[in-house]
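Researcher: We're teaching a course module on how sequence relates to structure. For the next exercise, students receive a sequence and then see the predicted structure as tokens, so they can try to spot secondary structure elements on their own. Here is the exercise chain.
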Amino acid sequence: MGVRCLGVDPGLGRLGFGIITQERSTLRVERFGCIETLPHSALPGRLLLLYEELRKILEEHTVHLIAVEQLFFGRNTTTAAMVWQARGVVLLSAAQTGIPTVEPKPSEVKLAVCGNGNAEKKQVQGMVQYLLGLSAPPKPDDAADALAVAIAGIALWRWHSGETPLP
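Model: And here is the predicted structure for the students to work with:
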């Protein structure tokens, strides 16, 4: 039996998600996409929408692991605050379901996917396409990033725990 991971690229306006399964050395895409909220809607309603849509995804797919990217922001604290709140919704959903989480840094995602912690965004997208056997890079970018986070999540889980996160 394989390991199925939900990778998340957190965002308030667009939250990217991707579900992959690893069986032995093969990675397979189960589903990917974005959950979008309207920019002029009230914050509590936007967070509720993210929560409800994430819960639906988790109800529809048996997931053994959730990977959500750590965030690093320089100057735009308003954007950072919004994204941190969306990330909190993801962590809450994971905690409520009891699914283990890993939180790779952006450099760890790039390293796991490309072998280089300083890889460019296009390199990451190209490697995600290659590793998952897709005919084209996944779109939109947030979904591609979420698939990369899922790949890194599985790698980090195995590295740190030394075991497969199966029930």
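Model: If you want an answer key for the exercise: The mean pLDDT is 89. Strands lie at 3-9, 14-23, 26-36, 65-68, 101-102.
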